[in-house]
Amino acid sequence: xxxSRNGMLLxxxxxxxxxxxxxxxxxQPARKIRRRKARQAKARLxxxxxxxxxxxxxxxxxxxxxxxxxxAGRGFTLEELKAAGIHKKTARTIGISVDSxxxxxxxxxLQANVQRLKEYxxxxxxxxxxxxxxxxxxxxxxxxxxxxxxxxxxxxxxxVHKKEKARVISEDEKNFKAFASLRMARAxxxxxxxxxxxxxxxxxxxVEKKK
Length: 211
Fold this sequence. Notes:
With 211 residues, this protein is an all-alpha fold. The chain has helices at 28-46, 63-66, 78-84, 88-93, 107-123, 141-146, 171-175, 178-190, 192-210; strands spanning 58-60, 70-72. The protein is built from nine helices and two strands, in the order αβαβααααααα. α3 (78-84) crosses α5 (107-123). The relative contact order is 0.09.
Protein backbone atom coordinates (compact mmCIF):
# COMPACT_ATOMS: atom_id res chain seq x y z
CA UNK A 1 0.00 0.00 0.00
CA UNK A 2 1.44 3.36 -1.06
CA UNK A 3 1.82 6.13 1.54
CA SER A 4 -0.75 8.88 1.41
CA ARG A 5 -0.12 12.63 1.75
CA ASN A 6 2.88 14.19 3.51
CA GLY A 7 3.65 11.38 5.95
CA MET A 8 6.91 9.83 7.09
CA LEU A 9 8.59 7.38 4.70
CA LEU A 10 8.41 3.95 6.30
CA UNK A 11 11.72 2.14 6.62
CA UNK A 12 11.19 -0.90 8.87
CA UNK A 13 14.17 -3.01 10.01
CA UNK A 14 12.97 -6.53 10.65
CA UNK A 15 16.13 -8.44 9.73
CA UNK A 16 18.41 -7.57 12.69
CA UNK A 17 20.46 -10.45 14.09
CA UNK A 18 19.52 -9.67 17.69
CA UNK A 19 20.47 -13.12 19.02
CA UNK A 20 24.14 -12.41 18.25
CA UNK A 21 24.11 -9.39 20.57
CA UNK A 22 22.32 -10.90 23.59
CA UNK A 23 24.41 -10.81 26.81
CA UNK A 24 23.91 -13.99 28.84
CA UNK A 25 24.82 -14.49 32.49
CA UNK A 26 24.66 -18.27 32.86
CA UNK A 27 28.01 -18.43 34.70
CA GLN A 28 26.70 -16.31 37.61
CA PRO A 29 25.80 -19.19 40.00
CA ALA A 30 29.10 -20.98 39.34
CA ARG A 31 31.08 -17.76 39.92
CA LYS A 32 29.26 -17.26 43.21
CA ILE A 33 30.39 -20.73 44.33
CA ARG A 34 33.93 -20.03 43.11
CA ARG A 35 34.14 -16.73 45.05
CA ARG A 36 32.84 -18.44 48.20
CA LYS A 37 35.42 -21.23 47.93
CA ALA A 38 38.18 -18.64 47.37
CA ARG A 39 37.11 -16.77 50.53
CA GLN A 40 37.12 -19.99 52.53
CA ALA A 41 40.57 -20.96 51.18
CA LYS A 42 41.95 -17.52 52.09
CA ALA A 43 40.44 -17.77 55.59
CA ARG A 44 42.13 -21.16 56.11
CA LEU A 45 45.42 -19.80 54.80
CA UNK A 46 45.55 -16.76 57.12
CA UNK A 47 44.04 -18.52 60.19
CA UNK A 48 43.93 -17.68 63.10
CA UNK A 49 44.17 -14.05 61.86
CA UNK A 50 40.84 -12.20 61.31
CA UNK A 51 39.17 -12.65 57.91
CA UNK A 52 38.16 -8.97 57.71
CA UNK A 53 41.75 -7.73 57.57
CA UNK A 54 43.61 -5.41 59.96
CA UNK A 55 42.14 -2.96 62.47
CA UNK A 56 41.00 0.32 60.89
CA UNK A 57 40.71 3.76 62.57
CA UNK A 58 37.55 5.75 63.16
CA UNK A 59 37.42 8.77 60.84
CA UNK A 60 34.89 11.37 59.69
CA UNK A 61 33.87 11.73 56.05
CA UNK A 62 35.13 14.88 54.29
CA UNK A 63 33.01 17.89 53.18
CA UNK A 64 30.21 19.65 55.07
CA UNK A 65 27.62 17.31 53.56
CA UNK A 66 28.98 14.08 55.07
CA UNK A 67 31.14 15.17 58.04
CA UNK A 68 28.46 14.07 60.52
CA UNK A 69 29.05 10.43 59.51
CA UNK A 70 31.75 8.23 61.05
CA UNK A 71 33.38 5.43 59.04
CA ALA A 72 36.46 3.22 58.94
CA GLY A 73 39.62 4.93 57.61
CA ARG A 74 42.71 3.66 55.80
CA GLY A 75 45.11 3.46 58.75
CA PHE A 76 46.18 4.91 62.10
CA THR A 77 48.44 7.96 62.14
CA LEU A 78 51.96 7.86 63.58
CA GLU A 79 50.83 10.26 66.32
CA GLU A 80 48.00 7.90 67.37
CA LEU A 81 50.36 4.91 67.48
CA LYS A 82 52.90 6.88 69.53
CA ALA A 83 50.23 7.94 72.03
CA ALA A 84 49.06 4.31 72.35
CA GLY A 85 52.67 3.14 72.86
CA ILE A 86 52.89 0.98 69.72
CA HIS A 87 55.82 1.17 67.28
CA LYS A 88 54.86 1.84 63.66
CA LYS A 89 56.76 -1.24 62.41
CA THR A 90 55.35 -3.49 65.13
CA ALA A 91 51.78 -2.27 64.40
CA ARG A 92 51.68 -3.86 60.94
CA THR A 93 52.84 -7.22 62.33
CA ILE A 94 50.03 -7.41 64.93
CA GLY A 95 47.13 -6.56 62.59
CA ILE A 96 46.99 -2.75 62.83
CA SER A 97 46.84 -0.70 59.61
CA VAL A 98 49.15 2.35 59.41
CA ASP A 99 48.65 5.48 57.28
CA SER A 100 51.68 7.80 57.35
CA UNK A 101 49.90 10.50 55.28
CA UNK A 102 46.84 11.16 57.46
CA UNK A 103 47.08 13.96 60.04
CA UNK A 104 45.14 14.51 63.27
CA UNK A 105 43.15 17.73 62.96
CA UNK A 106 41.35 17.45 66.32
CA UNK A 107 42.04 16.16 69.82
CA UNK A 108 38.74 14.23 69.85
CA UNK A 109 39.68 12.01 66.88
CA LEU A 110 43.17 11.42 68.31
CA GLN A 111 41.80 10.36 71.71
CA ALA A 112 39.08 8.15 70.14
CA ASN A 113 41.60 6.25 67.99
CA VAL A 114 44.14 5.94 70.84
CA GLN A 115 41.37 4.43 72.98
CA ARG A 116 40.47 2.11 70.08
CA LEU A 117 44.10 0.94 69.83
CA LYS A 118 44.35 0.34 73.57
CA GLU A 119 41.11 -1.66 73.58
CA TYR A 120 42.33 -3.76 70.63
CA UNK A 121 45.69 -4.36 72.35
CA UNK A 122 43.93 -5.56 75.52
CA UNK A 123 41.77 -8.04 73.54
CA UNK A 124 44.59 -9.22 71.22
CA UNK A 125 45.80 -12.82 71.44
CA UNK A 126 49.39 -12.83 70.16
CA UNK A 127 50.82 -16.18 69.03
CA UNK A 128 54.55 -16.73 69.62
CA UNK A 129 56.82 -17.17 66.58
CA UNK A 130 58.27 -20.26 68.23
CA UNK A 131 55.89 -22.27 70.39
CA UNK A 132 58.84 -23.68 72.38
CA UNK A 133 60.30 -20.19 73.16
CA UNK A 134 57.58 -17.55 73.80
CA UNK A 135 58.77 -13.94 74.13
CA UNK A 136 57.63 -11.03 76.28
CA UNK A 137 54.18 -9.78 75.20
CA UNK A 138 53.04 -13.13 73.75
CA UNK A 139 49.79 -14.66 75.03
CA UNK A 140 49.66 -17.52 77.53
CA UNK A 141 48.78 -21.12 76.63
CA UNK A 142 45.27 -20.74 78.12
CA UNK A 143 44.58 -17.68 75.94
CA UNK A 144 45.93 -19.46 72.83
CA UNK A 145 43.47 -22.31 73.38
CA UNK A 146 40.57 -19.80 73.53
CA UNK A 147 41.57 -18.15 70.20
CA UNK A 148 39.06 -18.33 67.33
CA UNK A 149 39.12 -16.74 63.87
CA UNK A 150 37.02 -13.57 63.65
CA UNK A 151 34.66 -13.61 60.63
CA UNK A 152 33.57 -9.96 60.24
CA UNK A 153 35.46 -6.66 60.49
CA UNK A 154 37.68 -6.16 63.56
CA UNK A 155 35.91 -3.96 66.14
CA UNK A 156 33.20 -2.61 63.77
CA UNK A 157 32.44 1.13 63.98
CA UNK A 158 28.93 1.93 65.18
CA UNK A 159 27.40 5.34 64.57
CA VAL A 160 25.55 6.52 67.70
CA HIS A 161 22.49 8.74 67.21
CA LYS A 162 21.32 10.71 70.25
CA LYS A 163 17.59 11.41 70.15
CA GLU A 164 16.35 14.62 71.71
CA LYS A 165 13.17 14.56 73.74
CA ALA A 166 10.25 16.68 72.56
CA ARG A 167 9.88 19.95 74.50
CA VAL A 168 7.98 23.22 74.40
CA ILE A 169 9.49 25.96 72.21
CA SER A 170 10.62 28.90 74.36
CA GLU A 171 9.77 32.56 73.72
CA ASP A 172 13.41 33.39 72.88
CA GLU A 173 13.42 30.69 70.21
CA LYS A 174 10.14 31.99 68.76
CA ASN A 175 11.48 35.55 68.58
CA PHE A 176 14.87 34.53 67.16
CA LYS A 177 15.39 35.71 63.56
CA ALA A 178 17.94 33.43 61.92
CA PHE A 179 18.34 35.36 58.65
CA ALA A 180 18.78 38.75 60.37
CA SER A 181 21.32 37.33 62.85
CA LEU A 182 23.33 35.73 60.01
CA ARG A 183 23.36 39.03 58.09
CA MET A 184 24.48 40.88 61.23
CA ALA A 185 27.27 38.35 61.88
CA ARG A 186 28.51 38.71 58.29
CA ALA A 187 28.41 42.52 58.56
CA UNK A 188 30.32 42.46 61.86
CA UNK A 189 33.00 40.20 60.34
CA UNK A 190 33.29 42.44 57.26
CA UNK A 191 33.49 45.71 59.20
CA UNK A 192 35.71 44.45 62.02
CA UNK A 193 38.94 45.97 60.66
CA UNK A 194 37.41 49.38 59.79
CA UNK A 195 35.74 49.69 63.21
CA UNK A 196 38.98 48.79 65.00
CA UNK A 197 40.87 51.40 62.95
CA UNK A 198 38.25 54.09 63.72
CA UNK A 199 38.29 53.26 67.42
CA UNK A 200 42.09 53.54 67.46
CA UNK A 201 41.99 56.91 65.67
CA UNK A 202 39.30 58.18 68.07
CA UNK A 203 41.41 57.12 71.07
CA UNK A 204 44.48 58.91 69.62
CA UNK A 205 42.43 62.09 69.05
CA UNK A 206 41.18 62.01 72.68
CA VAL A 207 44.78 61.74 73.91
CA GLU A 208 45.78 64.76 71.75
CA LYS A 209 42.81 66.84 73.01
CA LYS A 210 43.75 66.16 76.63
CA LYS A 211 47.25 67.47 75.94
